[in-house]
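For the sake of transparency, this paper describes our internal protein records without simplification. The record that follows is passed on verbatim for readers who wish to inspect the format:
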Amino acid sequence: MQTDKYLVPGVSCQHCVAAVTSEVRKLNGVSSVVVDLGSKLVTVEHDPGVSTEAIVAAIKEAGYDEVRPVA
């Protein structure tokens, strides 16, 4: 398993949490998605075969254009 974090400044409510979680969970190999409204971080636990690009695309599909991977 691999864990990556993404800064998504636009998340601000429970609807945002549900939208991001739903889209990212659609990716094969994603085992967990946690959205922290306070820090604006999305933490994704996934198989190594799931690319950063795929996760960013899923978050953008949920309606958030500004997504930055956190090192």
In short: The chain is about 30% helix and 30% strand. The domain at 2-70 is CATH 3.30.70.100 (Alpha-Beta Plaits). Helices lie at 14-25, 52-61. The chain has a mean pLDDT of 96.
